[in-house]
Specification:
Blueprint (H helix, E strand, L loop, with lengths): L4 H4 L14 H6 L8 H17 L3 H4 L5 H10 L15 H8 L7 H17 L1 H8 L3
Amino acid sequence: MTLGLTQLMTDEYWPETLWPETLNAVRDCDLTCLKCDHSANMVRDGLRAVIRVSEFPEFRNREITANQVWKHLAQYTPKAGKGFMFSADDDVITRIQQNLEISHSGCSMAWTMRQIEFIAKNGLPAYRELFQNA
């Protein structure tokens, strides 16, 4: 039986192993599937940015965990015609973008955010599968 995304968004069905929840887990995350160090570094940068959001006082004071940031990103879709570049209407998304450490062009930031979005919505195992036969 396949569960829909809405059903999967509960703690009961959403295993924490779908994405990293600590900076150490990001460091140890296997991204060799990308076969390009620069791409892997950009994705790892995005993963770290997601984790860091939960460490900011405004989120920590609301007891928002890294897992909840991932869930929020899994449910978020940028407005049509705006994409992630112009999604300033969402505090979590804005903070993720502000915490990217690699010097990104607009294009690389958008690409990184789309990779992170896929991981949030589908998990790292599904992300790795995209590149197995590439």
